[in-house]
Amino acid sequence: MRFGLVAGEASGDALGAGLIRAIRSRVPDAVFEGVAGPLMAAAGCEVWEPSESLAVMGLVEPLRHVPRLLRLRRDLARRWTASPPDAFVGIDAPDFNLGLEQKLRKAGIKTAHYVSPTIWVWRAGRARKVARAADTVLCILPFEPPLYADLDINAVFVGHPKADEAPDVVDAQAARRQLGIAASQVVAVMPGSRGSEVERLGGLLAETMQRLGAARPALHFVIPAARPDLRDRISGQLADAGVDPQRVTLLDGAAMQAMSAADVVLQASGTAVLEAALLRKPSVATYRVAPFSYWLARHVFRIRPPHVTMPNFLTKEPLVPEFIQGDAKPGPLADAVLALLDDPQRRQFISERFDRLRQALALDADQRAANAVLELARS
């Protein structure tokens, strides 16, 4: 069997790699090809274009990439139409993949979209677009399939792969020993996986660390650099903010280990916030986009969700303090982190609620997604 795949960014690469391994466990000679990252390549996908090509963000910033992305989508549609795979799976990146899926589906190719777009936050009309583009949508959140109930699409809840990866027990002390950290309190700082995120948020987080360090002389920080090329940039931001390098452990990757070692996680809003929740770690989240993009989102597209982090949509009460755009300042961020550090009972309460969430989402997503894709390919 042969499968076409297009994954956007690091999170899509991880989903794609898990899907490939699960399908290969039942169809050892299956062939995979398309837009993929290093994890998918290692799992056996032939890379036609790297996933990083789709990693653009914001509302205005991606405009300069539109001609290139349209050419890539045309080329992929032409290539797969000429030599159809048994099924195509678009992994996340809905602005790119839904259009591609629609072209391929019109050509008679069976299509699946892995990870429902956030139609429950904004652009609800995209549910109809998903239904036009895909035969099957693989949902990672339990409340998503009912949103497609009135549409002609097979919506399947597969669970969340990150919940499957999360250990039953998180030993913070063991993680600290492995990292050589002897401090009594540790804050993990996650500035994001994209260069643009680190550029926009790294200085803010470094200034917050400086304030935290001044308030808590015994506090230690651990920062996982998502890519090797971001390490020097993060180091420069820490130096500019006056953060003592002796109080920082800077890692190459190892985000799960860094969060496991922490009492509190200070991070860019995104996938990592849910990952921290699945490790039962109290978090403080922040985010900034270009001012014009934020203005467009608020006043033109009317995007005003009650929350911006996934855990706050999945728990009865919001448990992750969020500091977005104009509220993203070192003082309030530092105060929110200190409040959690100083309240072990609150941290325990949050950890218990997050553990319930982990259990609800840990359903062996890779295998469930593989079941749905194989069923689609064989139907």
Task: Name a few traits of the molecule.
alpha/beta; 379 residues; 48% helix; seven-stranded parallel β-sheet; 17% strand; six-stranded parallel β-sheet
In summary, what is this structure?
With 379 residues, the protein is of the alpha/beta class. It contains 16 helices and 13 strands. Helix 1 packs across helix 16 and helix 4 crosses helix 5 (126-133).
Topology:
Blueprint: E1 2-7, H1 9-24, E2 31-36, H2 38-43, E3 45-50, H3 66-82, E4 87-91, H4 94-106, E5 111-114, H5 126-133, E6 136-139, E7 154-157, H6 161-165, H7 172-179, E8 186-190, H8 195-215, E9 220-225, H9 228-241, E10 248-252, H10 255-260, E11 264-268, H11 271-278, E12 283-287, H12 291-300, H13 310-314, E13 322-324, H14 330-341, H15 344-361, H16 365-378
Parallel strand pairs: 1-2, 1-4, 2-3, 4-5, 5-6, 6-7, 8-9, 8-11, 9-10, 11-12, 12-13
Mean pLDDT: 90
Characterize the biggest β-sheet. 7 strands, parallel
Which descriptor suits the 3D outline?
globular
- What level of helicity do the residues show? 40-55%
The spatial strand order of the largest sheet comes to 3-2-1-4-5-6-7
